[in-house]
Fold this sequence. Notes:
alpha+beta, Glutaredoxin, Antioxidant, Horf6, Chain A, domain 2, 2 domains, five-stranded mixed beta sheet, elongated, binds benzoic acid
Amino acid sequence: MSLRLGDKAPNFKAKTSVGEIDFYEYLGDSWGILFSHPADYTPVCTTELGRTAALKDEFAKRNVKVLALSVDSVANHQGWIPDINETQKVTVDFPIIADEDRKVSTLYEFIHPNASATATVRSLVVIGPDKLVKLIITYPASTGRNFNEVLRVIDSLQLTANHSVATPADWKEGEDVIVVPSISTEDAQKKFPKGVKVIKPYLRYTPQPNK
Ligand code: BEZ
């Protein structure tokens, strides 16, 4: 069964680089990112896990807990982490799941058999505090992810979860947002005191409400 936006994120228990965890317990009431990488001791993955560690404060600011995964063993994760720390000038302190039996990879469809029969692709799932799936992105093994984009989507998700707005193409924190179509312009003018700019009846902008 495939995992789709709005689905309940499956819970699991797993061995990780920092001991056994229960996914829901690990997340608590936070947002979560669960992301897979193809293999330990590989160059692109080293930069991705380093970048994730470097963004620790950015994730904390957004109340997001991160959790990585590959099908390598705990011993491999623990042996590789010092290399990431050394080469990327970081401290990796988030857990990395050792999914040797592919249990979590199967639940979250991180193995795409026509890409690789055995290794996980670069998938990333954002989970809300309600444990529902908010974002799924998948990259091939040869392309490292853009973690600025991951932060940008989280900013959008958190904004749209709390206000009746959507975010336009290439939107960044602080820029004008879009009034959702389900709100009339009259109601939007009351709801958004900073003003509503009507370009077309269906295309209306307002300054970011929480700024
Ligand atoms: C890498 O992380 O560099 C990588 C892993 C698997 C395939 C290609 C690249």
